[in-house]
Amino acid sequence: MREELAGKILVDVSNGVERGENGMPGTLTYPGSSLGEKLQEALPDTKVVKTLNTMLFTVMANPGSLSTPATVFVSGDHADAKATVTGLLHDLGWRHGSILDLGGIRTARGPEAMVLFVPDLIAARGLAPFAITVAS
Predict the structure, then answer these.
(1) For the domain bounded by 2-125, which CATH number is listed?
(2) Confidence at residue 20, expressed as pLDDT on a 0 to 100 scale
(3) What gap in Å lies between CA 59 and CA 81, rounded to an integer?
(4) What torsion do the CA atoms of 74, 40, 19, 119 make, to the nearest 10 degrees?
(5) For position 29, what pLDDT does the model report?
(6) How many other CB atoms sit within 10 Å of the CB of residue 37?
(7) What is the pLDDT of residues 80-122, one digit of tens each?
(8) Domain extent listing, the chain
(9) Bridge pairing between strands 72-76 and 47-51
(10) What residues are paired with 10 via a beta bridge?
(11) Where are the beta strands (DSSP E) in 1-136?
């Protein structure tokens, strides 16, 4: 598989978590790292970009469904790949000011860890669309 993905962009929208008994995210699979980093290590010739992992899946391609503009994070080691993914995010309806490039793939750790509050958020609000917003 490495050869087939060499030079390609891999968009990682997932979170490395162990599921709890209720099927919800329980603990991080890679504490002190992230699934994005592990993918980049395993596929060194592939350009891994982590994004869209801090929201309910329904928001990924419909950011306008929220009452408040959300922030979508982008992490990756390859500027050209992040630029391509940013273009794809624009195509999905994400506005320029809502896209936040955090830096290299190591920065995927923070957004990936945000999944740990999802079970409590869903318990409090139900399975309603949500995303993270960085306010300035």
Answers:
(1) 3.40.50.720
(2) 85
(3) 22
(4) -10
(5) 95
(6) 24
(7) 999 999 999 999 999 999 999 999 999 999 999 999 999 999 9
(8) 2-125
(9) antiparallel
(10) 48
(11) 9-12, 17-19, 25-28, 47-51, 72-76, 99-103
Q: What is the rounded average pLDDT for all residues in the chain?
A: 95
* pTM to 2 decimal places: 0.94
103 backbone dihedrals φ, ψ, rounded to 5°:
125, -145
Instruction: Give the percent of the chain with pLDDT over 70.
Output: 100
The residues near 95 (Cβ < 8 Å, ≥ 6 apart) are: 63, 69
47-to-44, 52, 65, 91 alpha-carbon distances in Å: 8, 16, 30, 20
**Measured between alpha carbons, how far is 99 from 118 in angstroms, rounded to an integer?**
21
Whether the Cβ atoms of residue 82 and residue 51 lie closer than 8 Å to each other: no
Contacts of 111 (CB under 8 A, 6+ apart): 50, 53, 54, 73, 75, 102, 132
Q: Which residue has the tokens 């391609």?
A: 61
User: What mean pLDDT comes out for the span 30-47?
Assistant: 97
